[in-house]
Amino acid sequence: MAKSQQTYNKIEKEKQRRKKREEKQKRKEARRAEAKEKGGGIQFAYVDHNGNLTDTPPDPTQKTLVEAEDIVLGIPKKEETDEDKFNPIRNGKVSFFDHSKGFGFIIDTENNEKYFTHVSGLIDEIVENDTVSFELEKGARGMNAVKVSKI
């Protein structure tokens, strides 16, 4: 005959597990009984008209109605400002230009920003310290001066 596979150690571990389960069930029942005695039930948190959490319900007179069409999903369209309507032709001074490499830099007279220019964006031949007019164009590394002409 074969011996039982249940060893003393296995039986003791099973007893401990059973005891833990029973204790947990007793604590759970005690919490339920305590909640019934208090009678408070579930506590509520309200959100007032400013978006703050409170324990009192919000005032219905301060409620505002929102139409479903007024809700914008995503990024709202940008409105044109005075900055967007600036003159595309800007004035500046050539701070550096290398004819052998075909590029240089122009400093804007209005905001002292430095813009890159390439020989392909020139209308007239320029040298250092020339006063020029130009337009800006978005390039790979920032704004570039194009349509550069001497003043």
Automatic annotation (TrEMBL):
Residues 22-39 have a biased composition (Basic and acidic residues). InterPro entries: CSD, CSP_DNA-bd, NA-bd_OB-fold. One of its GO terms (molecular function) is nucleic acid binding. One of its GO terms (cellular component) is cytosol. Pfam families: CSD. SMART domains: CSP. Residues 89-150 form the CSD domain. Residues 1-62 are annotated as: Disordered. This is Cold shock domain-containing protein. It comes from Pelagihabitans pacificus.
